[in-house]
Design brief:
It is built from 4 helices and no strands. It has helices at 10-13, 45-51, 58-132, 135-146. Belongs to the Tom22 family.
Length: 154
C-alpha cells in the first residue's frame, strides 16, 4: 500500500520580510515624495496614453488591436482599389473620350457649315428670283421660307 508523507518546504518556513522589518520601505501611497524627478509639464499626451495601457486588460487590448488592424487593412485595400480604378477610368477617358469629343465637335462644325450653305443657297435663289419677278413675289417667298405671311413694313 502507498503511504503519503507531507514534506514542508524550507522556503515557506522562513519568516518573510514585511514593512516592519524592511528598512528601505516607504509608503508612497500616503506620502508625496519631494525627491521625485516627475515633471508633469514635460509629459506629453502620448506619454499619458501609453501609461494608460495597463488599465485595459491584455485580452481586451489584443481584441482592440486586432479590430484596428483589420479596419486599417480594409481601408488600405479600399483606397488602393479605388486609386487603381480611378487610374483605369482616367486613362480610358483620355484615350477614348478625347478623340471621340474631337470627332463629335468636328461633326457639329460640318453640320453647321451645311446649314449655312443651305441658307446661302436659299438666299441666292430668292435674290435671283426677285430679279425676274416683282418685289411682292420675293416678299411672298421670304414669308413662305419663314413659315408666315410677309407684310410690307409701311
Amino acid at each position: 500500500m502507498v503511504q503519503l508523507t507531507e514534506v514542508a518546504d524550507e522556503h515557506f518556513q522562513q519568516a518573510q520580510p514585511g514593512p516592519e522589518e524592511d528598512e528601505d520601505f516607504t509608503d508612497t501611497d500616503s506620502e508625496i515624495s519631494e525627491e521625485s524627478d516627475y515633471d508633469p509639464e514635460s509629459e506629453t499626451l502620448t506619454d499619458r496614453l501609453y501609461a494608460l495601457r495597463d488599465v485595459i486588460s491584455p485580452t481586451t487590448r489584443g481584441y482592440i488591436s486586432a479590430k484596428v488592424g483589420a479596419v486599417s487593412s480594409a481601408v488600405g485595400t479600399a483606397l488602393s482599389f479605388g486609386g487603381k480604378t480611378l487610374w483605369v477610368v482616367g486613362s480610358s477617358a483620355l484615350l477614348l473620350g478625347v478623340p471621340w469629343a474631337l470627332a463629335w465637335a468636328e461633326e457639329q462644325q460640318v453640320i453647321e457649315m451645311e446649314k449655312e450653305m443651305k441658307m446661302r443657297e436659299m438666299g441666292s435663289e430668292m435674290l435671283t428670283a426677285g430679279g425676274e419677278q416683282s418685289g411682292s413675289a420675293t416678299a411672298a417667298q421670304v414669308g413662305a421660307a419663314l413659315g408666315q405671311d410677309a407684310k410690307p413694313a409701311l
